[in-house]
Amino acid sequence: MIDVTLNTGAAMPQLGFGVWQVPDDDAYTAVKAALEAGYRSIDTARIYENEAGTGRALRDSQIPRDELFVTTKLWNSDQGFDETLRAFDASLERLGLDHVDLYLIHWPVPEQDKYVDSWKAMERLHAEGRAKAIGLSNFTEKTLGRLLASADVVPAVNQIELHPHLAQDRMRELGAEHGIATEAWSPLGQGKELLGEPVLTEIGAAHGKSPAQVVLRWHLQRGTIVIPKSVTPSRIKENIDVFDFELSDEEMGRIGTLDSGSRLGPDPDEMNWLG
Ligand code: NAD
How many angstroms separate the alpha carbon of residue 231 from the centre of ligand 1? Predict the structure, then answer.
């Protein structure tokens, strides 16, 4: 497993495991399978309603806490200074942990205009050592710029929708300029049209790898953090079996031509849903 060094100095595994849309009981089983397969970084969120099952699997694994990297996220309706502090306590309690490795603002929710206040609370949680690193999700050039203008702590991570159909070069560049690591959500394009792209099948055949493994390798070679999701044990193993081959510059370039700028999720500047 390769680590990325965050701007806090902490090491974050470059490949982790996501649990969006996995019901709590299934999250227990899936996280257990992921830990057995060798994943050490798990990405959950309060809105996924599976922090409890995720936390139980982490604790039952008996893996030392300092070998695990746990991310959860502040939900939109919990934004605001006091609300953030309360929401964080509730997440920790559901997880059954005394700290998380990364706490993210899930969406900026521009209309609500509370992300600057929420960030102040995140900075406090970071200073208290209960959120070892703090970061953002779904921030764009506009919202990131505004947050940075008043932030005392530079976010460690921005987790954004990113896959070969939405390569996000501008946000990756901006992140690099500020020392913010870019993390890809839906790195496999949610297993939809993307994995049917003939170029991925062709490149995969040349390496004895699946289209999903080719896509994950493309992310890793670009330095992006990835958190693919699967509840199928064979795919959980397949998705971490990506450290024994390398894509050539020519192959990376061919995958690069798939970028059409098309999103699977909402435009974060227009996303104001409070859930
Ligand atoms: P993903 O791109 O990881 O795709 C997952 C789907 O792809 C699976 O449900 C399955 O259908 C398919 N799949 C997985 N492995 C496969 C394989 N080896 N071969 C073929 N098909 C395969 O999509 P995702 O779950 O949306 O994203 C990953 C994680 O990102 C989530 O679980 C969550 O933790 C995070 N996420 C965050 C946000 C956010 O707003 N911050 C939004 C969406 C997802």
Answer: 10
